[in-house]
């Protein structure tokens, strides 16, 4: 069903706000440039009106925390088939961008600034050229969503094409205007689809999950994870929503960035926030943040940024100084993903030799 929003003014006699239009379509793009969180607080804008070289210009280009790209197209006055077809056409151009191309795009978008430095300041981690543009998402911005567009986008998404629609509506409020937004599809599904697109040819997923456990001094502790049986992530929905992929019985191979693969586990429960997650101790169940003192984790009141935990039964672990790290092993900055690259199959086969208790 096409997405429509109604807004009512609160009062004894509620009054429905009338829909209106922006003074000019360009205004939405200008608003996003001024406040990128209108799109997402998980992305950093890096390009605008970039020439694709074959008769078109992309409206906006962003980068996500995992160094994947986000192609953003405004519907404007185009028909549904035109805008989806053009977005897919532009995605083919985005897919071929090299690191130097992306740096040049940012140089035109933010003259005199460094993409690597701004990425580090924005996301708190270095921009790894090896992971840059390994995948991408396609986001269509629309003032209204017709059944045809919904069918096309849903069809593509069901087949793991990372595409979504963000619908904006404008309402009159006194002498001003209000803006609302709604996603057609769960952004988590789009993110997971993008994470499955990796370098090299794709192959059927082998059923083994990958986990990126960010052990950072003072923030998150590998020793805590081993002692209390969990993996975790926090700091924003981008990092926590993929934890929802894990279900009891799944096997997950865990890598600590900067070290290597440090363990393999069976999932025994679903993702929970730090507010509700408890672990077993000699004195009974305790809230995780009361006993996991090796790190501070994310304990913010904002549920979007709060740390999320998944309980696991460790099959085998090693200390950080004995982590398995070799050239050719798979890596990703997603908290959890289902890789579909031959490199992941090779990685799991190699890790089974280093972690012989993987199937106990």
Summarize the structure in words.
The chain is an alpha+beta fold and 360 residues long. The protein is 26% helix and 27% strand. The protein contains ten helices and 18 strands. It has helices spanning 26-34, 80-95, 99-109, 115-123, 147-158, 187-195, 222-228, 237-240, 288-291, 342-354; strands spanning 8-9, 15-16, 19-20, 44-51, 57-63, 69-74, 136-142, 163-173, 176-183, 209-212, 230-233, 251-256, 260-267, 272-273, 278-281, 284-287, 308-317, 336-337. The strands form four sheets. Strands 3, 4, 5, 6, 7, 8 and 9 form a seven-stranded mixed beta sheet that branches. Strands 10, 11, 12, 13, 14, 17 and 18 form a seven-stranded mixed beta sheet that branches. Strands 1-2 form a two-stranded antiparallel ribbon. β4 and β5 (57-63) form a beta hairpin. The longest helix is centred in the N-terminal third of the chain and has 16 residues, at 80-95. The protein is globular, with a radius of gyration of 22 Å.
């Amino acid at each position: 069903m096409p997405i429509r929003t109604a807004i009512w003014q609160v009062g004894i006699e509620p009054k429905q706000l009338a829909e209106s239009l922006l003074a000019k379509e360009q205004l939405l793009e200008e608003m996003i440039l001024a406040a990128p969180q209108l799109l997402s607080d998980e992305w950093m804008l890096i390009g605008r009106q970039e020439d694709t070289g074959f008769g078109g210009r992309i409206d906006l280009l962003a980068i996500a925390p995992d160094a994947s790209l986000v192609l953003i197209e405004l519907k404007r006055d185009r028909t549904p088939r035109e805008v989806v077809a053009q977005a897919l056409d532009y995605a083919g151009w985005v897919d071929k961008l090299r690191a130097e191309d992306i740096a040049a795009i940012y140089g035109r978008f933010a003259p005199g600034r460094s993409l690597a430095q701004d990425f580090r300041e924005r996301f708190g981690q270095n921009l790894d050229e090896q992971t840059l543009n390994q995948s991408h998402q396609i986001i269509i911005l629309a003032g209204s969503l017709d059944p045809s567009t919904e069918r096309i986008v849903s069809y593509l998404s069901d087949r793991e094409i990372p595409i979504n629609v963000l619908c904006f509506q404008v309402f009159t409020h006194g002498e001003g205007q209000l803006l609302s937004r709604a996603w057609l599809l769960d952004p988590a599904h789009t993110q997971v689809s993008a994470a499955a697109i990796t370098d090299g040819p794709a192959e059927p997923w082998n059923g083994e999950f990958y986990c990126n456990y960010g052990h950072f001094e003072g923030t998150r502790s590998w020793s805590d994870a081993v002692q209390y049986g969990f993996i975790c992530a926090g700091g924003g929905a981008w990092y926590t929503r993929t934890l929802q992929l894990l279900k009891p019985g799944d096997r997950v191979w865990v890598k600590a960035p900067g070290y290597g693969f440090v363990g393999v586990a069976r999932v025994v429960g679903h993702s929970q926030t730090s507010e509700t997650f408890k672990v077993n101790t000699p004195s009974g169940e305790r809230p995780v943040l009361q006993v996991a003192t090796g790190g501070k984790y994310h304990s913010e009141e904002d549920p979007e940024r709060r740390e999320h935990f998944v309980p696991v039964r460790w099959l085998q672990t090693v200390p950080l100084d004995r982590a398995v790290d070799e050239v050719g092993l798979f890596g990703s900055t997603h908290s959890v993903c289902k890789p579909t690259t031959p490199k992941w199959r090779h990685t799991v086969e190699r890790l089974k030799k280093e972690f012989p208790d993987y199937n106990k």
